[in-house]
């Protein structure tokens, strides 16, 4: 939306939909930005900012996920759009 | 649009160039009684919302492209207003239909 996730791995494949040959695909675990709780199962995202495993990232889904990619008409439904350096969350217990 | 509470912010300098120079806030969707509901979102701030504020968040990419006047912005959620007060009469839901006739 963008949302937050943690990159946990990479997917390699040469046989892909035309136009996606050079798409760098990574495995990402969606998390809640406030509690860092894992949300659902890991998903595959196309990385356009050079995030590596272990990094917390911002990702986007749906139609907007194709925008950062350098080709238009390609089937991408989740893409990394930023790398998170830090988050500040007010002490929710107070 | 959904009601959210601003919980904090996110620092991410290394990102898609269309997303630069915008404040990234962490917001938590809330229900009408201001209790958390669902998982938090990262949203762009367009109205200088502060921490702890109740805000209105748009969650749709098309609206983002219109609001930012940019077809190439990979964004869906952004803040469009700070809520000062919420006035809800929940008893309306309990009353039998029709409640108010506009004839």
UniProtKB/TrEMBL annotation, chain A:
Alphabetic keyword roster: Bacterial microcompartment
Organism annotation: Uabimicrobium amorphum
Entry's Gene Ontology cellular component terms: bacterial microcompartment
PANTHER family: ETHANOLAMINE UTILIZATION PROTEIN EUTN (PTHR36539)
Alphabetical list of Gene3D superfamilies matching this protein: EutN/Ccml
Taxonomy, superkingdom: Bacteria
Principal cellular location given in the protein's record: other
InterPro entries: EutN_CcmL, EutN_CcmL_sf
Pfam families in the cross-refs: EutN_CcmL (PF03319)
Protein name, entry field: Ethanolamine utilization protein EutN
Subcellular location: Bacterial microcompartment
UniProtKB/TrEMBL annotation, chain B:
Keywords for the protein's UniProt record, in alphabetical order: Bacterial microcompartment
TM regions (residue ranges): none
Pfam families, sorted: EutN_CcmL
InterPro entries attached to this UniProt entry: EutN_CcmL, EutN_CcmL_sf
Gene3D superfamilies, per database record: EutN/Ccml
GO cellular component labels: bacterial microcompartment
Record has Cytoplasm as a keyword: no
Principal location class: other
Protein name: Ethanolamine utilization protein EutN
Subcellular localization, as worded in the UniProt entry: Bacterial microcompartment
Domain of life assignment: Bacteria
Source organism of this protein record: Uabimicrobium amorphum
